[in-house]
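Q: Joint fold for the lines below.
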Amino acid sequence: MNFWLLSPELSVCGIALAVILLDLVIQQKKLLAGLSIAALAIPIAFTIVLWGEQQTSFNGMLVVDNFSLFFKFLILGITALVIVSSVDYVSKFARFQGEYYALVLFSAVGLMLMASTGELISIYVALELSSISLYALVAFLKDKKSSEAGLKYMILGAISSAVLLFGMAFVFGLTGTTQLDQIVDKVSGLVSGGQLWDSPALLLGIILMVAGFGFKIASVPFQMWVPDVYEGAPTPITAYLSVASKAAGFAVILRVFYTAFGIPLLSENWGMIFAVLGALSMTLGNVVAIAQTNIKRMLAYSSIANAGYLMVGLAAVSSLGRSGVLFFLASYALANLGAFIAIIAISNKTGSDEIADYSGMARRTPALALILTICLVSLIGIPPTGGFIAKFYIFNAAIQHDLLWLVIIAVLNSVISAYYYLRVVKVMYTGEAASEEAVPSSIPLRAALTITSLGVLLLGIYPWVVLRLAEAAVVMFSP
Amino acid sequence: MDFPYLSVILFLPTIGAILLVLFAKQPRTVKLTAAIFSFIPFALSVALFVMFDRSGGLQFVEQAQWISSINAKYHLGVDGLSLPMVILTTFLGFVAVFVSWKINLRTKEYFAWLLILETGILGVFMSLDLLLFFLFWEVELIPMYMLISIWGTPPPLGRKEYSAIKFVIYTLFGSAFMLAGILTLYYSTPAPHTFSMVDIASGTMQLMPVIPLASIFFLIFIAFAIKLPVFPLHTWLPDAHTDAPTAVSVILAGVLLKMGAYGMIRLVAGFGGGGLVPGVAQHYAGIMVVFAVISVLYGAAATLRQTDLKRLIAYSSVSHMGFVLLGIFALKQLSLTGATLQMFSHGLITGLLFAMVGLVYDKTHQRQIPMLGGLARQMPVIAVVFSIAGLAALGLPTTIGFIAEFTVFVGSFGTAAFAASQTYVVLAVFGIVLGAGYILWMLERVFYREPKEQYNGVGDADNREKAYIFAFVVLIMLFGIYPRLLLDVIGPVFHSFG
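A: Joint structure:
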């Protein structure tokens, strides 16, 4: 029982509880946001100090290694940026501002634990902790769209949890354990005949788990909830869903599949599952995104497409593929957060998320338009942005794994995506402005935008630092 | 370590762009900053030309680690092929600032994008690492998209936004395949794999491809073929060239197309040895030359039919770049040298032609040839320089156009790379005849008929305009009369082709 290993999660829990308590006495709600951001420095510091640890505790439920710490750092960073970008947005709510921040923090704890457990039940509990907080957050606007989104997310989320649990039950039934590192020993016995079909039940279990996790990462065919939820949810929560939730989902997938099902015979099979799902996700996401007129919906489909690119990294079962996924998640988080924060700033003024209303933004707010452009360019994957290196790295891994067909599908998809991302740029730069009124952005938003856009460029020009961290994080997995 | 000339040339324009965005307030300061930050790279590249060791080889090489895990390096250098391209780029980049002097719409953004564009193009010519090459290849897209879609020709005369996105999609489509090709090539090299163009092209490396070498070759080739452009992948070109603002057309035709030609030469001939994907070009030279001749003849025929002055010049590029393709796949020292000369010559001549079209349009606000006429009376200087540029384009001796085309033809005539080379060369020469047709006919219709009254009183070129158009003329004549200046640099690169 080493509580020191749990310090990042415990401190985030502490902050969340403190926010709820202080909410009772503090009238100036913006102070709550300020306090939580400042306090987030504590778990971030713990995470940095813990870097390099390689320990398990609580009977194998908690695994602290570079892999989990990489994700904890990423999720904490995202959480801080989301809270920063919520400050203005949340002040629109008449009530429950304190709860909003507390819920964001609780779901962050869930996501961090997802990346940090080596045991199926804990994975499930962590996933539920994050999901239940998010169900409430999605419905927080309490208008028609937001309530519908919340309900939809909850029902589909509950079904997917059930499916996941069902899959876990199969695996547990076959192996008699929920510990990932013990599952792998039993699993190799199950398929000793050299064929996955030797154990159809195991195959079913794996497929059901893919379905459960696929919901979390917004992969086809479990993507139905994405557009409505992204459109209806408060925009900072949409940003949070699209990056933090996806990152934790991939963390779990990497951990489960490389630890419990990491033997070559199995990895060939689940690699192919992810290759096919990836190809479908990016194609569906990109093609449907073309038709969108609402920028949040467009980014929802882009999120599905990006899950597809990420799955290319899973399909390329190798060290390069794993570190590529981590780097892609970092770069995607920065670019997508940057884009959403710019959207928040613009909609704070115009009250609209329609792409048509971005007309002439480059004149009304040159800096915001430029930052949104940088982020969108990174999402296309054009240099000198992080998105380019990230895609390059993942495609590199796929070619190494003889997946030329998948890479060609993926690069052609990037071409398609250029069309709809650049449409936003076109509208901003060449459209007529509806009014000449400037679009101001508050200091917290500006700070968040500066961090994300500089981060995107830094990852594109000098990616080596983050790449090395990503490599250090996945080194203990095999093959 | 020696002074990093290439890095300085490469990044000065971008630094200029950042400075002018941050600090320049007045449009005039913006233009002066842009002029300074494009002049210094030009001056430096001329200095490199003087210092360049004529015996050949890669020079001014810079190398640093970039992404160690995949062995990608920051690796720059120039040889006799890339140095002329670098000079051409910095020259046109500098001139483009003056061509754009009258831009008053969102001046700051315009010059910032223009300078960033210059860095992107220079990077392509300097990179010796395939990943770095690919990175710069794509960097150019966003500035180009912005420049065409914001400052291009608006409706009803043009379709700037359509042309801009068409350009981007075509290029991205090509680079999609190129990326796949580069990655397969990377994994074909022995471990530790390398992106180094020099090592791969050295011929000492035993490639172990997982797919046939020819498919790697074509994956990469298609991106260059779109850029060059080769018939039938050329349809983006007339739109983009026509709808771009004048200075951007100058750069597009002047150096952007050369990125395609440059890439092809590296792919086929490397640094004078086997090429990046060795042994493939020889097998397919016979097909390529057919495309070359079709590009020449189709391009010229299409040019004859144009009524928009700018579109006419744009189509002529398709025809002229066909000569480059012919020269490359004839695979002889002389033909490859000719192709490189043709790249340089087309950059100067078509750059000037677009600048002249820009001037004519500036003065008359008219690009439709039937609406123009007799302008030689109203704007004599423009008429004379336009005629010189036109004559250079059709290959009149004493201009670099003649030297370049002549070298391509002599070099390709009787090559063993494909059968019936004489027939193909003769067919291609026929493109020159058509070229004489469309150039002279155009000059006659625009400048030498009865003067039209509505153009009385339109001005001639002013002093700043005279300065840059004369600079073009001087260079066209200088290299036309004394081509050794360039031949000494280019020739040694292709020594081994015989």
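Q: Anything notable?
A: DSSP finds 19 helices and two strands in chain A. The beta strands of chain A are 55-57, 62-64.
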